[in-house]
């Protein structure tokens, strides 16, 4: 016997249909109600009702008529979203970053501030993140926008509750970051979430990067940690508990340098930014631990550009280690592209030739299964941009924002 649909079932269907309409407008705007009905398979009355809701909540707006069609002129629709913003934050090796975007993904602000997270306690990091979030929220509120959500990217394992069980790069264990940040912000009326920085950077690549729209791609972070964020079949690959992608602790050389995780010869200990600086710029240790890596990264670029033989050879070796790991990814996931970010992108002109050669030699499939290896074009705030993109997910899934 078939049960009659319950109101919650009908509500879920409406939410799903609303998401279909909103997604169509985002991808195909300007478009008409008739266009949406024809392309999505929804009937015209349903589309008209859903568009009315979206207009009423200022997620979609009408933008004039078009006569380049058979029959009567049609009213065209585009995303609105002017009253809304989404925030993303990221914790890096030597800085915090904040990005705010509107509903269409257009950047409203991009801020970076120096902060030595590996040397800070979790409580100090939470306070710094909360201060940055409050400033960003105040800025977008001053423009008449309500914040839809906030997502923070960190280098380490993150579970579904926003807790960080382990971050070797930050020296963290069992830090309930989402709960602590929510409390520091005094329980704001928007969602506060935490995810791994590589997952968020991969989302940013899929939406905003050179490979936007790709259904299978990987973003490799560069900085204090090395991690893979993977989009597989159009969806983020998380694993059973959200811990997928920890390629930074793949052991490439058991006799290699010690890693922050307690083992030896991990990819992160060979190609992570602190490791590269220690190996190629040994004089930096004379002044104590490095807390600001930007000057050292600039030095490496300058020396490589001057054909310094030690630096060039060291970067080529780093590229070979990276290529070994990318070949593993190519064999496991067969992505369309692997994008490297952070210092791996900055040093790309000297890393990628050896990296690409190692990929071609190490992958089992001919021509590395068609996998392209390129530097990301999103810059050093890719995870924060991905965090802001993730914070839009509730609305993009068809849930209407609170009035």
From TrEMBL:
One Pfam family this sequence matches: ROK
Cited SUPFAM superfamilies: Actin-like ATPase domain, Winged helix' DNA-binding domain
HTH marR-type domain residues: 20-62
Gene3D superfamilies: 3.30.420.40, Winged helix-like DNA-binding domain superfamily/Winged helix DNA-binding domain
InterPro entries (UniProt xref): ATPase_NBD, HTH_MarR-typ, ROK, WH-like_DNA-bd_sf, WH_DNA-bd_sf
Family: Belongs to the ROK (NagC/XylR) family.
Protein's recorded name: ROK family protein
């Amino acid at each position: 016997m078939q049960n009659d649909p319950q109101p919650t079932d009908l509500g879920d269907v409406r939410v799903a249909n609303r998401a279909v309409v909103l997604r169509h407008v985002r991808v195909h705007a300007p478009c008409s109600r008739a266009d949406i009905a024809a392309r999505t398979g929804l009937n015209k009355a349903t589309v008209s009702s859903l568009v009315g809701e979206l207009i009423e909540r200022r997620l979609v707006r009408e933008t004039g008529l078009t006569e380049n069609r058979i029959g009567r002129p049609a009213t065209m629709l585009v995303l609105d979203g002017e009253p809304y913003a989404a925030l993303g934050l990221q914790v890096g090796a030597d800085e915090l970053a904040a990005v705010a975007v509107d509903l269409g993904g257009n950047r409203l602000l991009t801020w970076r501030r120096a902060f030595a997270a590996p040397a800070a306690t979790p409580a100090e990091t939470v306070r710094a993140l909360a201060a940055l979030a409050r400033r960003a929220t105040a800025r977008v509120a001053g423009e008449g926008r309500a914040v839809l959500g906030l997502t923070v990217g960190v280098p380490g394992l993150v579970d579904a509750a926003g807790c960080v069980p382990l971050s070797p790069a930050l020296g963290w264990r069992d830090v309930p970051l989402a709960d602590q940040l929510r409390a520091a912000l005094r329980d704001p009326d928007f969602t506060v979430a935490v995810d791994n920085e590589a997952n968020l950077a991969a989302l940013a690549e899929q939406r905003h990067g050179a490979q936007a729209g790709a259904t299978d791609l990987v973003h490799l972070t560069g900085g204090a940690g090395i991690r893979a964020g993977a989009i597989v079949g159009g969806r983020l690959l998380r694993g059973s508990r959200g811990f997928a992608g920890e390629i930074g602790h793949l052991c490439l050389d058991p006799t290699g340098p010690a890693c922050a995780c307690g083992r030896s010869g991990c990819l992160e200990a060979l190609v992570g930014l602190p490791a590269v600086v220690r190996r190629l710029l040994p004089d930096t240790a004379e002044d104590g631990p490095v807390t600001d890596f930007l000057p050292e990264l600039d030095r490496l670029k300058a020396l490589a550009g001057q054909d310094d033989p030690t630096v060039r050879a060291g970067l080529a070796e780093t590229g070979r280690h990276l290529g070994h790991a990318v070949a593993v990814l190519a064999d496991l996931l067969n992505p369309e592209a692997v994008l490297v970010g952070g210092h791996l992108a900055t040093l790309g002109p000297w890393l990628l030739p050896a990296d690409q050669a190692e990929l071609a030699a190490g992958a089992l499939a001919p021509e590395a299964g068609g996998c392209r290896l390129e530097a990301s074009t999103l810059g050093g705030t890719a995870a924060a941009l991905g965090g802001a993109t993730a914070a839009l997910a509730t609305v993009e899934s068809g849930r209407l924002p609170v009035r």
